[in-house]
């Protein structure tokens, strides 16, 4: 563990963040945590020249962002 590459730590952190996201009951929290984890995996994939890792996680970032935008734009019912 003494010679571990700093980018490996980013990969480990990304794995933990994605695992945390999957434990969320609240869909907004799940999407936010998953977006952060996928973003870390994009950085990790690019840093280690693993383009498939970066691309699939970039796609996940886009999916999470799309659904977060939909969730936040959802009209709230009026309260009287």
TrEMBL record:
<feature type="transmembrane region" description="Helical">
    <location>
        <begin position="6"/>
        <end position="25"/>
    </location>
</feature>
<keyword id="KW-1133">Transmembrane helix</keyword>
<keyword id="KW-0472">Membrane</keyword>
<keyword id="KW-0812">Transmembrane</keyword>
<protein>
    <recommendedName>
        <fullName>YgjV family protein</fullName>
    </recommendedName>
</protein>
